[in-house]
Amino acid sequence: MTRNGLLVLLLVDTILLAILELFFLPLRAGTVPIPVTVLVAIFTTPLLVVQASKLVHRRAAFAPLALWVVTIVVLGLMGPGGDLVLVQDWRALLLIAGGALPAAFALGGSLAIPGRK
């Protein structure tokens, strides 16, 4: 498989992870909210960014981060049937920050490596 094909597969994985993280965000154990998908976002989004920078070009590393944010915002605010999927409390902010901030740090790190294309 070519590098561009792997990048497309990585971007499809990004969309699927964002959908799963968003749909399982309201998970509860009784009355206690358990936002385990935030932990998934904290670990997977930076990995997707780093892998994208290794696969194609370090400037292509922004694609998983941008696609993840767009998927969360669009699907969260205009979900299936026009439903609001993104819960309106602290868990939504935690998901967005937990996915975007570590990925932004990984993006900065991949762009700052001298000598790489």
Describe this entry's structure for a reader:
The longest helix has 22 residues, at 90-111. Strand 1 and strand 2 (32-33) form a beta hairpin. The chain is built from four helices and two strands. The two termini are 21 Å apart. A two-stranded antiparallel ribbon has the order 1-2. The mean pLDDT is 89. Helix 1 (3-23) packs antiparallel against helix 2 (36-55), helix 2 packs parallel to helix 4 and helix 3 (62-77) runs antiparallel to helix 4 (90-111). The chain is mainly alpha-helical.
Features:
globular, 3% strand, mainly alpha, 117 residues, 4 helices
Question: Brief description of this entry?
Answer:
The chain is mainly α and 117 residues long. The protein is built from four helices and two strands. Strand 1 and strand 2 form a beta hairpin.
